[in-house]
Design a protein that fits this description.
The complex is a heterotrimer of chains A (290), B (343) and C (259).
Chain A: H1 3-34, H2 41-59, H3 66-84, H4 94-116, E1 131-134, E2 137-140, H5 141-163, H6 165-175, H7 177-182, H8 187-212, H9 220-234, H10 239-259, H11 264-278
Antiparallel strand pairs in A: 1-2
Helix pairs in contact in A: 1-5, 1-8, 1-9, 1-10, 2-3, 2-4, 2-8, 2-9, 3-8, 5-6, 5-8, 6-8, 9-10, 10-11
Chain B: H1 23-43, H2 46-71, H3 80-95, H4 101-123, H5 128-148, H6 150-153, E1 159-160, H7 170-193, H8 196-206, H9 208-213, H10 218-244, E2 246-247, H11 249-252, H12 255-268, H13 275-293, H14 300-314, H15 320-323, H16 331-341
Helix pairs in contact in B: 2-7, 2-10, 2-12, 2-13, 3-4, 3-5, 3-10, 4-10, 7-10, 8-10, 12-13
Chain C: E1 5-16, E2 19-30, E3 34-38, H1 45-52, E4 60-65, E5 68-69, H2 75-81, E6 83-85, H3 98-108, H4 117-123, H5 125-130, H6 146-159, E7 164-168, H7 176-191, E8 195-199, H8 203-209, E9 212-217, E10 220-225, H9 227-231, H10 234-241, H11 243-258
The chains are: A mainly alpha (290), B mainly alpha (343), C alpha/beta (259).
Chain lengths: 290, 343, 259
């Protein structure tokens, strides 16, 4: 590998890390606050991607403009799912919520295959293939935009969590549910909003991914697993931790993709297992959102 | 006068799964079921024999999952790795070493057990979600390695095994072999749960710290449970390989198998002797009805998902409690779970 | 006559991060005695027991059980060599019956290797009687009330047939009458030949049952001696009640002495 290829890989990994951070952050909030591994996270992401696709294909809506639409729709969907389904078994043993969200994923994926068919599809706005050159390194516009938007959304989430009443209620619930109850936090509603936020962030990630990569109904599972690996790498519960985890993961993925393409996922997963064994709190493990 | 006081028999409440409650009815029922399973090949073949063989293999794997997931309480989501390794071990020793089936299968099982011990030792230190996902990751990574290690495993071309001779008896042969494995699994469960090992598993599930303090080597308990679940899945993999005469990584490492084991166990009742076995039937009957008899087109996965959700919300402890008469099937009983676990 | 030491800790220390939870504690427990371990909340009593029993790793120091170095042993080995404990927050096996809960102790404890699970299940009747739960033998642990769960803790630990037993606040949360019977139970356990270390906040119980008391504060030894000596020791009173009360208490005593 010469230095040009190396630089290109580093740029690619950096750009990828933004989107991956966005994928993982919603997952991380739901896990950290609700103690639920949401296996349907990738399915939400897939719906977000398809919303962007259909808005673009049917009505010519610019993919970046469809971002808020897919976020709002998934926010509502996520709220309903948590409020009227998961809340009923939220304190049940791990296996119950695990299988419940898995069943959700099966259902969403199945419906997507039936109604939208299993084909690979792409969102192709006029600027899809364009980019600029930094020296000899190629930087595609859409990926750069996705990277920047991911950072903006992450920043907004941080502001929301820190400065709004709801954000504080969510954090309080994550730290000590009983104390939060005594302070008058409506737990059911707070949980639902938390889950809805997770779903909306997944949708945003899905919309951004759909502009750079082809999509299909089964795309979600791989992203759920990535989100998990990133959360473990970065440690559960801190936004900077998740971003670091995403950066690390992006590098692992890009470089192992070059050296051993067929073992790309295996390497990432073995790294995950190793990190879990050596340091179960992650690299920057911290308790909940600060 | 030396009248020996007659001791009342000791009631062991925990481990007798089926034998509590409506004992006679249930032992009768399972007797009938086994009699039916035993004579089934006499009047059925082809599709139904294959379906039932698959069902029995699933039941055997579910019995294995029950050791680690049901009795020891560790949510293992990667047991398909044992199935895949069992299948590959059998296939490789039969094709590369030209060994006969049974020694080949033993190699497969040994490989699966070795895998369970080597990786179980570090990952069984993890708890809850972390353990669950580590097992998923491990199984997925193993599948990928098997898929890309072309020189050894044949990669995406798979491995073709020799056929069973005589061909016309092949169906019955693998059916009875699977049935034997299921019976072995039931016996193994019963045997272990009466003994100290069984108590150490349940103690770990209920409170690992207290178990450790009471003199239980919890690492040993967890690793044995994991390794024995590998034994069941490894045998199932070996039978599968020779039965289908074809092994492909994408097929034998599919996470769907893990889920089927878990669903079968959960449907029937985790931590009971007959639960996984009965659950496998329920699961298969449901799936078969959904796929073949309901005019719902391709929506059967949606229906299956809905059923999983209903089970998880209303009867997450399986149906054994209702069948055995420990609990009455009422609305109240169904809603009890929600009452306890909602926000 | 020099009594035999059953357990000795030599400058046992535990740091959590930079914080010293237990600092250089030297303790000797003599064969057959009931030693009280007291101290204000957060003094490190439970942490100390956790270290000795191998539930958390030790930072530095040594632990000897009957002259044998058991420093850093895993909990299950400590349990098998003849040390048992109860937990302040009870830890029953909820999915097992009372009998099975207790039998687990008989299966895996100090003498566990000598019997099968069946023998263990038969053996524990006497113990369940001993803690007064024979009418609850076949109940699941999750059906029991707190006082009975505390008794179950005791029975589980006793079933291990330990030579040394740590009781971590078995009387907390019990009312006066229950405390009386719990005290009687502890004395009876001691009469069976079990050496006891009792962590307790109920002073009445400490005075009533212990031969000797060891006081900890801020992770360190504060004082030790007979219950009367220790409870009237100004340093101990200060630790418990604060400076002001200690002075008032000493004044009162001085006045009383003059009169």
């Amino acid at each position: 590998m010469n230095s040009l290829e190396l630089t290109q890989c580093i740029v690619n990994a950096l750009l990828l890390s933004g989107t991956l951070a966005l994928v993982a952050i919603g997952f991380s909030i739901v896990w950290g606050i609700l103690n639920i591994i949401n296996l349907a996270h990738g399915a939400f992401l897939m719906i977000g991607a398809y919303i962007t696709y259909w808005l673009f294909t049917l009505y010519g809506v610019d993919p970046f403009l469809s971002l808020p639409i897919s976020m709002i729709l998934l926010f509502i969907g996520g709220y309903l799912v948590q409020r009227y389904l998961i809340n009923f078994v939220i304190r049940a043993p791990l296996l119950v919520t695990f299988l419940l969200t898995f069943a959700l994923e099966i259902i969403i994926m199945n419906l997507a295959v039936v109604f939208w068919k299993g084909d690979l599809r792409s969102v192709t706005p006029s600027y899809a293939g364009m980019g600029f050159a930094l020296g000899e390194v190629q930087v595609p516009y859409v990926r750069l935009a996705a990277f920047i938007l991911s950072l903006i959304l992450t920043g907004l989430l941080h502001l929301f969590m820190t400065y709004t009443k709801m954000g504080n209620a969510i954090r309080a619930t994550g730290m000590d549910i009983d104390a939060a109850k005594l302070q008058g936090v409506k737990i059911g509603h707070t949980y639902a909003v938390t889950f809805a936020l997770g779903a909306a962030l997944a949708a945003a990630a899905g919309s951004l991914i759909s502009i750079s990569f082809p999509i299909d109904p089964t795309m979600g599972g791989a992203y759920t697993l990535r989100a998990f690996v990133i959360c473990v790498l970065g440690g559960l519960g801190s936004i900077p931790g998740v971003m670091m985890g995403a950066l690390l993961y992006a590098f692992i993925e890009v470089f192992s993709g070059i050296w051993a393409p067929s073992l790309k996922d295996a390497i990432a997963l073995l790294v995950l297992v190793l990190v879990l064994i050596v340091r179960p709190t992650g690299i920057a493990g911290k308790a909940f959102y600060h | 006068m030396n009248v020996e006081e007659k001791k009342a028999p000791i009631r062991i409440t925990r481990f007798d799964g089926l034998f509590r409650g409506r004992q006679r009815l249930l032992s009768g029922l399972s007797g009938v079921l086994f009699a039916f399973l035993f004579i089934f090949p006499l009047f059925a073949s082809g599709f139904w024999l294959n379906t039932l063989t698959s069902l029995l293999l699933l039941a055997a794997m579910a019995e294995g999952w029950n050791f680690i997931g049901g009795y020891t309480g560790y949510a293992a989501f990667g047991n398909v790795a044992f199935f895949g390794i069992g299948a590959y071990g059998t296939a490789l020793s039969m094709t590369k070493l030209h060994w006969p089936f049974f020694p080949g299968m033993i190699v497969g099982v040994a490989a699966a057990v070795a895998f369970a011990i080597v990786f179980g030792l570090p990952i069984l230190r993890l708890k809850g979600h972390y353990f669950a996902i580590a097992t998923v990751a491990l199984a997925t990574a193993t599948g990928e390695v098997a898929n890309s290690w072309t020189s050894f495993t044949g990669g995406s071309a798979g491995i073709t095994l020799p056929f069973f001779h005589p061909m016309q008896l092949s169906g019955q042969y693998f059916y009875y072999l699977s049935l034997l494995l299921v019976v072995f699994g039931l016996f193994l469960t019963w045997y272990i749960m009466k003994r100290k090992l069984g108590y150490s598993w349940v103690a770990v599930r209920e409170d690992e710290e207290a178990a450790n303090m009471m003199g239980i080597n919890t690492t040993w308990a967890k690793v044995t449970a994991f390794a024995l679940s590998a034994v069941m899945a490894g045998f199932a993999g070996g039978i599968y390989a020779y039965w289908r005469t074809f092994v492909l990584a994408e097929e034998v490492f599919k996470i769907d198998y893990t889920l089927q084991m878990i669903l079968a166990t959960v449907f029937g009742g985790p931590g009971t002797i007959f639960g996984p076995f009965i659950g496998a039937f329920i699961y298969y009957i449901l799936v078969t009805i959904l796929v073949f008899f309901l005019p719902i087109g391709q929506l059967h996965a949606t229906l299956l998902g809905t059923i999983i959700i209903l089970v998880m919300v209303f009867t997450p402890k399986g149906i054994m409690d209702f069948i055995s008469g420990k609990r009455k099937l009422t609305w109240r009983a169904l809603l009890e779970n929600v009452r306890i676990y909602r926000v | 006559m020099e009594r035999e030491v059953i357990l000795e800790s030599q400058s046992v220390t535990k740091h959590f991060g930079g914080l010293a939870a237990v600092e250089k504690v030297n303790m000797k427990i003599y064969q057959g005695e009931i030693l009280g371990l007291i101290g204000p909340n957060g003094a490190g009593k439970t942490t100390f027991v956790n270290i000795i029993t191998g539930m958390i790793p030790i930072t530095s120091g040594k632990v000897y059980f009957k002259g044998r170095d058991i420093t850093g042993w895993p909990a299950y080995k400590v349990g098998r060599i003849g040390i048992a404990r109860t937990f302040q927050i009870v830890k029953p096996f909820r999915g097992m019956s009372v009998r099975e809960n207790v039998a687990v102790g008989a299966m895996f404890g100090h003498t566990g290797h000598t019997r099968s699970s069946k023998e263990a299940l038969e053996k524990v009747d006497e113990l369940i009687d001993f803690v007064g739960m024979s009418h609850l033998k076949d109940r699941y642990a999750d059906e029991l009330t707190i006082p009975y769960l505390k008794r179950l803790e005791l029975a589980k630990a006793l079933a291990m047939e330990p030579e040394l037993l740590f009781l971590d606040e078995v009387m907390a949360g019990l009312h006066t009458k229950e405390i009386e019977s719990a005290m009687a139970l502890v004395r009876k356990i001691n009469e069976r030949g079990v050496t006891l270390l009792v962590i307790e906040h109920v002073m009445k119980a400490i005075v009533g049952i212990t031969n000797r008391v060891f006081v900890m504060n801020f992770g360190q030894e504060l004082a030790q001696g007979t219950p009367e000596e220790v409870l009237n020791h100004p340093v101990v009173i200060k630790a418990y009640l604060g400076e002001k009360f200690a002075q008032r208490h000493m004044k009162q005593k001085a006045v009383a002495a003059k009169v």
